[in-house]
Amino acid sequence: MSTDIPMNAASASLNPLRRIDPRRPAILTPQGLRRIVLGSSEGERLAASLAHAPAAKPVRSAGPFALATLVVTHAERGSLSDQARQAIAAAAILASADTEVILAVLGACHDDVAALGVDRLIVAEDFDARHYQPAACVQWLQRLQADFKPQRWLLADGGADGQLGRRFAIQTGVSLACGVAEMGADSLRVPAGAGQDWLLPHAQVMLLAKGVANTKLPFVGLGVSEPAQRLPAAQEHGIEDLGVQTGDPQTLALEEADFILAAGNGVTDLPLFHSLAVEVGAAVGASRVAVDDGRFARAQQIGATGKTVSASGYLAIGISGAVQHLQGIKDCRHVIAVNVDASAPIARRADLTVVEDSSALMQALLELVRHQKEVQ
Ligand SMILES: Cc1cc2nc3c(=O)[nH]c(=O)nc-3n(C[C@H](O)[C@H](O)[C@H](O)COP(=O)(O)OP(=O)(O)OC[C@H]3O[C@@H](n4cnc5c(N)ncnc54)[C@H](O)[C@@H]3O)c2cc1C
Model's pTM, two decimal places? Predict the structure, then answer.
């Protein structure tokens, strides 16, 4: 009698290896990876995904607060800039248990500020970025100074935040440190040129360079929101406000554009692409391949050998996302990719990837935007 067992059957009985069924329900991550959650039944999969869900973070300090750090920023369309978030993170990391992190925002703010480490949020909803009113903003900060007597003020050293910080410090007569590259509990480091740094004690107003703090905090703030006093009606001496002139996005320097529609080799219908750019009011950029082919001007090339852009919105259509292209968009806030290939490298950088043919998506988007404009 033969005792031979076929090899497959023997290994199956001796080694009950559980294999992942590639057809199981899966999620496509923002990085473009297809992820299968382990577990044989729906219940097991749910338990596994819950086990991997991020745990709730503890509150940094529940108070009571005797001291305060004030972070000031301008919100843009309800959002805080990355640099402002870093300033808040720096304030929260440095704050002692009895120090309250207060965020004063000029303009409506819709971000989850508790997750950023903020204990108290004060919003000047009546601030209108279309009007140039530096004296009113400085006076508003001086009122906050009188109300909260903060130990230190932190602002991003860039754009309107940097300007306001300088004005406030000079007009209030408090010490100021600009371009702060690193902060310790009592000291800070600022570049002094020629590869040298200055190590200085904390100033009352500190303007922070990009990258000064990591915004991924192990804790949250209390996130209590309270209405702010109205901006004072201050006299702006020597300033005549001519209002905001709307520029033509098509003629705007790409480095200054807030919204860019960029085309790559996957865009074949150029008239449709340009119609969409005009309709949505976007500046036009392109990948090097699209420029080399003569479809776009050299000045429109984005990437390592082209322009480095910092738009809030970057819509990349038919662009693979080669490393040289990604270098040019590293400072962009929201990247949306349209590509027929879900595994294209751009999907790893993009916040949202639409897997679709470029012409079909542009046509649908164009119709949607035109329809929206008609009903408005
Ligand atoms: C020294 C050096 C410097 C460089 N500098 C730059 C630079 O500054 N900027 C730059 O961009 N590149 C630069 N490059 C080139 C870079 O390496 C890539 O070759 C280039 O970015 C690719 O352009 P692309 O993504 O448009 O084209 P492709 O690589 O051809 O990708 C096209 C993409 O479109 C998708 N696609 C195709 N058809 C469709 C469709 N119908 N609908 C939707 N999607 C579709 C494809 O899936 C693909 O992902 C440089 C290269 C070198 C060596």
Answer: 0.69
